[in-house]
Every structure is written in C-alpha cells, then in structure tokens.
C-alpha cells in the first residue's frame, strides 16, 4: 500500500466517521413515540394553566397523514425548548413552552405574512397565528385540494363571503369554482385552472386516484396514456383521446374546471383593499389565469402529479362544464354567426341594389298601367 | 278617419308590446355582445352588463307571457297558422313576389286584413320565432341563469357549454332576423309605411291591395 492509497483510505474513514457523528447528533433526543405516550391520550389535561386552552391531545393517526410527518419532522423539531425528557422525572414537562415559530423553516411564507391584513390585525388586538388557518399538527398537502377544501379549511373559518360581494354577479358560481385567493392575492401570484372529473353515475367528483382506478392504470402509465407525443402538454387531440378512453372504460362523466392559485409563499400576503374587482382578470380571452391548465392526480401521501394541458382545450366541448364568459368561448361559433349575419346583410344589400336599379322600370310599368286604365 | 289613415291593424296593446319587446331584445343583444366580447367592448363593466342582461331578460319573459296570454284569449294566435296544404304554394308565390314580382311592380299576392296580418312567409317566420326560437332562447337563458343551483347536474342538458352554444347561436339568428325584418318593413307603400303603422296602428294598403 503506497502513501496515496493509505491517505485515501484514511480520508474515507474520516468522512464516514464524521457522517456517523453527524447522524448521531442529529437524531432527536426525544422520539415522537415518547411524546405520544401522553399526548395520544385524550384524558391528558394540564396540571397547571397559564391561560392556554388548547387541547393536549394529538391524533397520531392524523398527524401521520400530515406533511410534516411525511417530511420526518419530529415533535421536538418545533417544540424545540424540550431537549431532554426523562419520562420518570421530567413529566409533566413545563407548561410554558416557547411558541412554535413556523417562520424558522417557512421563512418566505413568514415574510409574506408580515405584510398581510391578517398579520396587521395584531394592531387591533387580534393575533392570528399560522395554526389558526393551518391547524397545529395536521397541516397537509394542499396542491390537490379543491376550491371547496381550500376555502372551507381556511377562509370560511372566519369569513362569511355572503355578507360581502353584493356587486358580484353569480356569487355562488364564483364561490364554487374560484378560490378566494384568485381575487384576493396579488396579481403576481400565478393562477391556474384545474380540471376535475365528475362521475355522472357515482354523482361525485373523482379524486386522481379514483380516476386512475376507473381507467385501470397508474400514475406512470397515465402520463404515457394521455401525452402520446411526449411533449409534456396535452393537446386538443390528446384530450379527445383521453375522453374517448374514459368512455371506453364505461365511465360516464365530464371535466369541470376550478380556478386556483399556485401555493407560492406570496399567497399569504393578502392585503387590505387589495382584492381585485376587475372582471377582465378572468373574463378576457387573453387572461393569463388560463395559461396554465392542469389535470391534477393525487398520490396516497398527498403529493401530486400535474399534467399540463393546452389552453385551447378550455374552449372545447371536451370541457363542457367550465365556461368563463368572454374568455373560454367557442370561437368557431362566432365565425358561424358572423357568416350568418354576412349572408343576411348580403341578401339585403343585393335586394336593395336591385330595388334601386329597377326603380325606373317600376315607374314606367306603373305609368303604362295607369295609361291603360284611362284608355 | 280610418278611411283616410287606412286599415286599423295593430291595436294599442300590440304596439306597446312590440316596441317594448324590441327594446328588450336590443338591450339583451347589446349587453350580451358586451359580455361575450369583453376584450373589445367596455361600454359597461362586466358586472353591470350581466346585471342588465338578467334584469331585461326578466322583463322580456314577462312580455312574452303577456303576448302569449293575450293572443290566446283574443284568438289572434290563429293568425300564426294556416292550412298546411296551401301554405307551401302560397310561400312560393310570396317568395317569387319578393325575388321577382316586386321589381316589376307586380301586386303583392297577400292582402292584409286584421285576421290575416301576415303573408305566408311572415307567418312561418313569426311562428318559428314566437314558438321555437324565442322559447328556446328563454329556456337556455333561464338554464344559464339558474345553473349555479344545479351545476353538478347540468350534464342532463349537455353541460354549460352546450347550453351556452344554443343561447349564443339563437342570438345570432335573432340578429339575422332583425336585419331582414328591418329591411322588409321598408317594402310597404312607402319605405316608412310599415314602421308608421306600428306607431299609429293604421296600415296603408299597397295600391295593389
């Protein structure tokens, strides 16, 4: 073994040792299971109270469905002032735990929230913490969430949209199919249309997984099934093929659409008076809100696959239940209508021209007729 | 007096109904065009145009109900129908008049009377308008208007886009009708004779009538 080989092995040992030490040190001192010994018990109550009324019970089954669990976040990663816990001597632990600061990890979201009307409510004595909207322990992926799930889980906890929006035509339709944030967050936050399949027989919207089950396929095969040319965009003809494939599978239904916002940090920056009342944001044929059209399919863990569609699909009869006036109209219908009016005007113009052209003829014939009568 | 003015053809209620209905149709078309071509037109906001369209549509429906009931009660509805065996030959005769005879100063083959206000072509056109096109337009409009209450079941009618297609296409047919109607009313004894008749009620007979 020469010197270089020796040094190489020596370095590898050092790196391996370092990684092991890092791994050992990064393992939390307290495992979630230890916390759940008490917190999974609904009977657990505070022995003392400093004004906090929140439940101590944590539904571990729901927590395990949460996005934080999926990312292997441990209880003490957030409740970081508990560093050691001897179940025999340290329980119950101090009641005055430090408030969890979500911004430690979600810094961009935290920064955006600083400028929101919800944060500024603090000036009026109302403190709205992250968990008021996101829940403590059960925050889940929202990418596949519908308009209904997003607004019910968030805005409608506090707001009653019926009390406002008197100026808005078709309030219910807007509330059903347009996420609140589409009008209420800054125009720079990207919007998109999500197509959801409604099963006429089961009388419900199918989740992505349910749709795949109906088509007897999986996420990978679905991508190949609909994006036949592999260009990552579902064209009109590929959409036609998908609709045909769904019919062949014996499923009766059609695609509905919802307008949603991308879940970028700036969705937290909802400003007072910042809501848009400009209908042209959507009701315009060149609205950027319809540049991105997706079919979103969820996985069991809440993550998603998005399949992008060509915008022109929105103006087709394959998406029969999503129609935005002025925006996703059927262009060919206007061409047919324009042709009809052109024929009408042409006919009138032709008749009018002949009428003028034959005016002298009619006068002459009338005079001849009158002369004939006198004779 | 009626001898001087001609035949009293259009009663006051018919004239009022006609002009209100015409105004309603024009407002519906204007607001509808504003809604559909929002990128090119801005004479109302989208919200104002939708509210106006809905409000005028309600008035239009009430006027249509009035027309139907009054025509049923008075029996005037019979003027929209005639013997199917003679209808087609008479339509051909009337068509020939507009396409050929009119230019040669031939007499109009149809003589207007209070019970036979419409010539065979008018009869078919107005019957199609009043009993097919406008009811279908009203039905599709009501479906679009109330869709939010049965959105998930709208597939029964083929979906929003199909309902909208019917509504928009019939709007184009109505504009087509207005173009033809607006021109044909100038073919009376004088270019404004038919228009005036719908204002004061008296029809001036063509010299041939």
Description:
The complex is a heterodimer of chains A (375) and B (209). Chain A is an alpha/beta fold and 375 residues long. Chain A has four domains: 1-28; 31-134, no CATH class; 147-329, no CATH class; 334-374. The model of chain A is unreliable at 21-28 (pLDDT under 50). Helices cover 40% and strands 9% of the residues of chain A. Chain B has a single domain, classed as Fumarate Reductase Cytochrome B subunit (Up-down Bundle). Chain B is elongated, with a radius of gyration of 20 Å. In chain B, helix 2 (12-36) runs antiparallel to helix 3 (46-74) and helix 5 packs antiparallel against helix 6. Chains A and B meet through helix 10, helix 15 and helix 16 of A and helix 3 and helix 6 of B.
Summarize this, please?
The complex is a heterodimer of chains A (375) and B (209). By secondary structure, chain A is an alpha/beta fold.
Structural class of the secondary elements of chain B? mainly alpha
List the strand order in the largest sheet of chain B.
1-2
Overall strand count of chain A:
6
Question: How much beta of chain A, percentage-wise?
Answer: 5-15%
Fraction of residues of chain B in helices? 55-70%
User: Largest interface, and how many residues on either side?
Assistant: A-B, 52 and 40 residues
How is the main sheet of chain B built?
Answer: 2 strands, antiparallel
Assign an overall shape of chain A. Answer: elongated
Computed structural class of chain A: alpha/beta
Oligomer: heterodimer
Integer count of domains of chain A:
4
Fraction of residues in helix of chain A: 40-55%
Termini of chain B, distance in Å?
19 Å
Element string of chain B (H = helix, E = strand): HEHHHHHHE
Tell me the CATH architecture of chain B.
Up-down Bundle
Q: Bin the strand percentage of chain B.
A: under 5%
Summed over residues and divided by their number, the pLDDT of chain A gives a mean of 82
């Amino acid at each position: 073994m020469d010197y270089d080989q020796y040094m190489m092995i020596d370095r590898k040992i050092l790196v391996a040792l370092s990684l092991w030490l890092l791994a050992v040190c990064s393992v939390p001192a307290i495992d979630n299971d230890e916390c759940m010994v008490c917190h999974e018990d609904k009977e657990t109550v505070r022995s003392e109270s400093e004004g906090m009324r929140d439940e101590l019970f944590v539904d571990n089954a729901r927590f395990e469905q949460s996005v934080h669990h999926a990312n292997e976040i441990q209880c003490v990663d957030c409740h970081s002032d508990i560093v050691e816990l001897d179940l025999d001597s340290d329980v119950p632990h101090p009641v005055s735990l430090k408030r969890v600061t979500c911004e430690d990890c979600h810094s961009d979201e935290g920064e955006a929230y600083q400028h929101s009307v919800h944060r500024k409510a603090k000036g009026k004595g109302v403190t709205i913490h992250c968990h008021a909207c996101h829940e403590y322990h059960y925050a889940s992926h929202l990418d596949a969430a519908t308009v209904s799930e997003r607004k019910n889980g968030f805005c409608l906890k506090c707001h009653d949209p019926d009390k406002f929006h008197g100026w808005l035509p078709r309030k219910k339709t807007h509330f059903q199919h347009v996420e609140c944030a589409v009008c209420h967050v800054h125009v720079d936050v990207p919007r998109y249309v999500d197509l959801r399949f409604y099963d006429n027989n089961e009388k419900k919207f199918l989740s992505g997984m349910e749709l795949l089950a109906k088509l007897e396929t999986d996420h990978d095969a679905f991508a190949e099934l609909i994006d036949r040319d592999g260009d990552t965009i579902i064209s009109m003809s590929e959409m036609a093929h998908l609709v045909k494939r769904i019919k062949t599978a014996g499923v009766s239904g059609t695609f509905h659409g919802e307008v949603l916002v991308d879940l970028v940090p700036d969705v937290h920056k909802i400003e007072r008076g910042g809501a848009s009342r400009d209908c042209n944001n959507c009701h315009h044929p060149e609205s950027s809100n319809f540049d991105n059209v997706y079919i979103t399919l969820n996985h069991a863990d809440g993550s998603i696959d998005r399949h992008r569609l060509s915008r022109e699909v929105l103006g087709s009869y394959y998406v029969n239940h999503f129609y935005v006036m002025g925006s996703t109209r059927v262009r060919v219908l206007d061409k047919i209508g324009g042709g009809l009016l052109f024929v009408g005007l042409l006919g009138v113009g032709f008749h009018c021209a002949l009428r003028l052209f034959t005016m002298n003829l009619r006068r002459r014939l009338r005079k001849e007729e009158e002369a004939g009568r006198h004779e | 007096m009626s001898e001087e003015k001609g035949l009293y053809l259009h009663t006051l209620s018919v004239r009022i109904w006609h002009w209100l209905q015409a105004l309603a149709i024009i407002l519906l078309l204007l607001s509808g065009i504003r809604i559909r071509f929002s990128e090119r037109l801005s004479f109302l906001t989208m919200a104002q145009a939708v509210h106006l369209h809905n409000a005028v549509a309600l008035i239009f429906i009430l006027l249509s109900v009035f027309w139907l009931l009054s025509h049923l009660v008075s029996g005037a509805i019979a003027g929209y129908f005639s013997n199917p065996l003679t209808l087609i030959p008479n339509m051909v005769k009337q068509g020939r008049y507009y396409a050929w005879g009119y230019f040669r100063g031939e007499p109009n083959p149809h003589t207007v009377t209070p019970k036979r206000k419409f010539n065979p072509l008018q009869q078919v056109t107005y019957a199609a308008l009043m009993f097919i096109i406008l009811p279908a337009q009203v039905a599709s409009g009501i479906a679009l208007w109330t869709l939010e209450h049965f959105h998930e079941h709208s597939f029964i009618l083929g979906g929003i886009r199909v309902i909208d297609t019917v509504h928009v296409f019939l709007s184009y047919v109505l504009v087509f009708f207005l173009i033809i109607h607006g021109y044909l009313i100038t073919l009376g004894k004088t270019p404004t004779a038919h228009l005036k008749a719908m204002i004061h009620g008296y029809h001036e007979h063509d010299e041939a009538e």
